[in-house]
């Protein structure tokens, strides 16, 4: 190891990290691809000559990227995919290490793009001609299904929730309208009252836990509840890299709480110093509320999530948090 000297990160890498943090790049899949791209840039722009220093530098870039947003597991999964093999024996020259990072980052991005098309193909099959579908927030995986169903000639109507406070529902509405899909925007508070018009729900995911629970944009679990009340199918569209290996060993998915000022303006906060605003960005939908999880490897029941995780990630190695507990006990 070098003596703890870590080179400055390239400005492009810092800019991608900032954009993810500020949600200029958002959506769990896009975040993961942007992180892989940042790692690729960091590797290509490294100007030192030491393999050990390169590895240390890449791990610092990885830490920076993972720290930007806490909930979507696609982010650490993508970062681990790109950098974890640097620790393996045999990566003993700078050129080997650099080309490993560059090739794995490119492979991840390619995989993510292909996964989205496969999800559209599997998911399109659950949409019937004449369906009215409710979606929430803005999910590339969910939107892809709806666009493909429309392109295949199915006459569909999509209800898109506004998705306060950041109104990602507008992005969904605009991308569907561009493709010629019929769209209705509704406030989230109207979900239960319009559920009688809905044939099925399709949403995305930020993280899928080992028990099949789905963490997605806040409000998703209320939509699932309203769908269940009427016996309406509730589908989740997601790449398998949003399945969390950490939950297989009991880790809780951290829920991101964002700034108070996304909900209430500075002036109101200044007028009422005792006022506190809670702004959770995500919530958890239990597996029993979910009809199926549409992935690039097929449509799976939520109860099969742990099998997918073991297939994708192997049996989990001991996670850092558990190691820390064990070390505490050892003292
Ligand atoms: O990966 P795709 O399917 O695009 O999106 C998945 C999910 O990511 C988004 O989170 P945010 O808007 O980044 O907070 C939404 O919760 C969306 O459902």
From TrEMBL:
Extra remark beyond the main annotation: Reaction proceeds via a cis-phosphoenolate intermediate.
Enzyme superclass (EC): isomerase
Purpose: Catalyzes the isomerization of ribose 1,5-bisphosphate (R15P) to ribulose 1,5-bisphosphate (RuBP), the CO(2) acceptor and substrate for RubisCO. Functions in an archaeal AMP degradation pathway, together with AMP phosphorylase and RubisCO.
Secreted recorded as keyword: no
Protein name: Ribose 1,5-bisphosphate isomerase
Organism: Thermofilum pendens (strain DSM 2475 / Hrk 5)
Catalysed reaction, written as an equation: alpha-D-ribose 1,5-bisphosphate = D-ribulose 1,5-bisphosphate
Family the entry assigns: Belongs to the eIF-2B alpha/beta/delta subunits family. R15P isomerase subfamily.
Enzyme Commission code: 5.3.1.29
UniProt cross-references to SUPFAM superfamilies, sorted A to Z: NagB/RpiA/CoA transferase-like
